[in-house]
Design a protein that fits this description.
mainly alpha; two-stranded parallel ribbon; 14 helices; globular
Length: 244
C-alpha cells in the first residue's frame, strides 16, 4: 500500500525557510526529520528503507532530496507542495484562479523569471488556510494591512514566509491544548489571543497598531487551521457512515 508523504504546516514552513537559506539544516535534513517523526515505529525497528519505499514522493520532493532544485517554483510545484500539508485539499486549478483573478495583484507576476518566489508560495499557502473562515475580499484586506503595496516586498511589515512560519509554529504549540483549555474552563479565545500576542511580540520593529494587526492575523490563521481540521474530520466520518 502506497503512503503519501505528508508534512505539518510547521514542517512545511521550516522546509521553505531551509530552501530560502534561512535555516541551519538542509532541505534533505528537514524532510528526513519530518518523515522519521511520523514513522517512529519504523525508525525504532530499523525498517526505514522498506517503509520509505512505500511512500509516494512527488517530483518536487525528489528535486529537494537530490539537492538540485533551481531558484523559484512553478505553480504546479507549489500545488504539489501544498497537497503534502495535513488537512489541506488545495488544487492547481484553485491556485491558477488565485493567480489570474482573485489575488492577481500579489501573484500575477512571478518574481524569479517565470517562476514564483518562496514568499509567493507562502502567500498561496496562507490563502488556502484562510479561505476556510474568510472570503477572498476579507483576505485581501488582511494582506493590505501587513504587506502594504502588493507589487513590492521591501515595504512588508513581515515577509509572507515569516508570517506563515509564525502562525504554523503557533498552531503547533497550541495543537492538543484546545480540549485541555475547555476542560479547565478557560476561554479558547483568551488562550489563542495571548499566545498570538506573544508570538507577534518577537517583531520588535512594529508599532502598537502594527503589532495588533499581526496578532489578529496570527489569531485568525490559527483558528482557520483548526476549522480545516474539524472539516476534514467531519468528512472522514461522513464517508465512513456512507460506506457502511
Amino acid at each position: 500500500m502506497t503512503e503519501l508523504f505528508s508534512l505539518t504546516r510547521c514542517e512545511m514552513a521550516q522546509l521553505l525557510l531551509s530552501i530560502e537559506g534561512q535555516h541551519h539544516e538542509t532541505p534533505l535534513a528537514m524532510l528526513q526529520k519530518a518523515w522519521n517523526k511520523h514513522h517512529p515505529s519504523d525508525v525504532e525497528k530499523g525498517n526505514t528503507l522498506p517503509a520509505f519505499l512505500s511512500t509516494s514522493v512527488p517530483p518536487i520532493l525528489e528535486k529537494l532530496i537530490k539537492g538540485n532544485r533551481g531558484p523559484g517554483f512553478s505553480l504546479q510545484e507549489i500545488a504539489s507542495l501544498g497537497q503534502l500539508v495535513e488537512y489541506s485539499n488545495v488544487s492547481i486549478t484553485s491556485m491558477q484562479n488565485w493567480v489570474k483573478r482573485d489575488f492577481k495583484e500579489y501573484l500575477s507576476s512571478p518574481k524569479i523569471g517565470k517562476k514564483y518566489s518562496i514568499n509567493q508560495a507562502s502567500l498561496l499557502f496562507m490563502i488556502d488556510d484562510l479561505k476556510s473562515v474568510l472570503d477572498f475580499d476579507s483576505i485581501r484586506h488582511l494582506f493590505e494591512g501587513v504587506f502594504n503595496q502588493p507589487e513590492r516586498e521591501d515595504d512588508d511589515l513581515i515577509s509572507p514566509l515569516k508570517l506563515y512560519s509564525t502562525y504554523a509554529e503557533l498552531f503547533e504549540q497550541l495543537d492538543g491544548q484546545f480540549e485541555q483549555t475547555l476542560h479547565k474552563g478557560k476561554s479558547v479565545e483568551e488562550e489563542i489571543r495571548s499566545a498570538a500576542s506573544r508570538m507577534a511580540g518577537q517583531f520588535t520593529h512594529l508599532s502598537e497598531k502594527q503589532h495588533l494587526i499581526v496578532r489578529n492575523i496570527l489569531f485568525i490563521a490559527t483558528l482557520s487551521i483548526q476549522t480545516t481540521y474539524l472539516y476534514s474530520l467531519s468528512r472522514r466520518y461522513l464517508n465512513a457512515t456512507l460506506f457502511l
